[in-house]
Design goal:
Length: about 475
């Protein structure tokens, strides 16, 4: 998100899809293990977590990695193995990797083998450093037809001859131009474009669905659409979410499930959620769906410092919970972060943002892991910018039970996790201990009803409990 300031033949394809669907195994159960299967997700109170293969509740911390500047033969030029090594060394376990449909399928039905091979290479780096990847079909202002932005191919663009003008200094405002809105409307509504969109995702899921680094698919970055005469931004966003965008997410999820029942599907609301408005998305009828909103503050996007009294974080947190609670969806914030990380209130902003996401989400990916100015987490020399060191925190990658609360105090470098054991959750609780936080092994205190065993290696604490009940783990710097 950026600133919100302005308003085959059909029969043959259907037969092939039906035959393929019928040949696939039944999906795993999302709740419980009625037939001996490990559950896909764990719901604790109002929150839901992705469960790993051992039934443990997982948490995710990481950053976006992508290259908007290069394409064709130079695509992914700025994505390197070093980025994944650096993420892992600082304790992060998630990368939201951007890819662009316009590079993947430059002509209808002609997929770039070279582009797919580059994605496969990136996934290999991620797997080497134990970082899971969400493949994000990224778009900005629909795609390259409009002022050479990235995203949906030019051949999918139907603007009805309506006007479009670049908005210097405020590119996000271009979403509100008639030509761009018409293009989204046709992508959502035209049968041939709907089919092409689904086939693109089938290609991606069939190619990468079994790769061990893949966690899931973010179906389209920051969806927008056509506003009707007289609609304000919240009204138009609610209508788009409840109708066209909900329909698109269900349609694309169904397409992916023709070839991949293993990985997670991440769905987004419109960027209007950043105004602290609840989403109007409807249910997504798939067992492995996560909600992936973005968490940006409009004034900060234009260069303002964080306003501690502005209520942005509090309003967002109050609005975000209803949809995932009602649909029992894990929440992984797909993007967040300020463009100027050196402003005076950024340390407080980071403390409040990460604490809020600890309360309502089970994961986040900051924008973005790169070297340089602006949103980049690292400076031009590859050093983490001073305030960004606050984002390197301990967290429970996997909890052998039901997480009840977890909190990190950056001032004292104290991490506290409380969880209840659960039948079917096997293996140790694993807590990341970044070396930037704990230069030497920290002190770990555990209270609970049974015996425990703690092993610390590779900057990770692995804690095994033997009794049933509630445990509290407290981690502090070594004296």
């Amino acid at each position: 998100m950026r600133v919100l300031t302005r308003p085959r033949t059909h029969a043959a394809a259907a037969l092939a899809a039906g035959l393929l669907l019928a040949s696939l195994p039944a999906p795993a159960y999302a709740h419980g293990d009625r037939h001996g299967r490990t559950p896909d997700k764990v719901t604790v109170g109002d929150r839901t977590f992705i469960a790993d293969e051992h039934g443990r509740a997982t948490q995710w911390r990481g950053f976006n990695i992508g290259d908007k500047e290069h394409r064709g033969a130079d695509a992914f030029k700025d994505v390197t193995e070093t980025q994944f090594r650096e993420l892992s060394e600082r304790g992060f376990n998630l990368a939201r990797v951007l890819f662009f449909w316009d590079d993947l399928e430059p002509r209808p039905g002609r997929y770039s083998r070279d582009y797919l091979a580059r994605i496969h290479k990136i996934l290999g780096w991620a797997d080497k450093y134990r970082v899971k990847v969400v493949l994000d079909a990224h778009q900005d202002i629909y795609g390259p037809y409009f002022n050479d932005h990235r995203g949906n191919p030019e051949w999918t663009t139907r603007d009805e001859g309506l006007p479009y003008e670049p908005v210097p200094g405020d590119w996000f405002a271009e979403y509100y131009t008639p030509g761009v809105q018409a293009a989204f409307d046709h992508l959502y509504g035209d049968r041939d474009l709907r089919r092409a969109h689904a086939e693109m995702w089938i290609k991606v899921a069939a190619t990468f669905g079994r790769h061990p680094a893949v966690l899931g698919y973010d179906l389209m970055n920051e969806p927008m659409g056509r506003f009707r005469d007289g609609e304000d931004i919240p009204t138009a966003a609610a209508r788009l979410e409840s109708t066209q965008i909900t329909d698109m997410w269900n349609r694309l999820a169904d397409a992916i499930r023709l070839v991949d029942r293993r990985n997670w599907i991440l769905v987004e609301p419109t960027p209007v959620v950043g105004l602290g408005l609840p989403t109007a998305l409807g249910p997504i009828t798939d067992d492995k769906v996560a909600y992936a909103p973005h968490f940006y503050e409009s004034a900060m996007e234009t260069g303002a410092d964080y306003d501690p009294d502005g209520g942005f974080i509090e309003n967002y947190e109050a609005a975000i919970g209803a949809y995932p609670k009602a649909n029992k969806l894990p929440v992984i914030v797909g993007e967040w972060g300020p463009p100027d990380q050196s402003l005076p209130n950024i340390p407080l902003f980071y403390r409040r943002m990460t604490a809020a996401m600890d309360r309502f989400a089970s994961g986040w990916a900051g924008w973005q892991w790169c070297n340089g100015g602006g949103y980049c987490t690292l400076d031009a020399d590859g050093r983490m910018k001073p305030n960004n060191k606050l984002l390197v925190q301990p967290y429970a990658r996997a909890v052998a039970g039901d997480p009840e609360s977890y909190r990190y105090d950056p001032d004292t470098r104290t991490y506290t996790l409380t969880f209840g054991t659960r039948r079917g959750a096997d293996g140790p609780t694993e807590i990341a201990l970044p070396k930037d936080v704990y230069a030497k092994p920290p002190t770990i205190r555990i209270t609970g009803p049974g015996r425990t065993h703690t092993e610390t290696r590779d900057n990770t604490a692995r804690i095994t409990t033997t009794g049933s009940g509630r445990y509290t783990i407290t981690i502090t710097p070594a004296p």
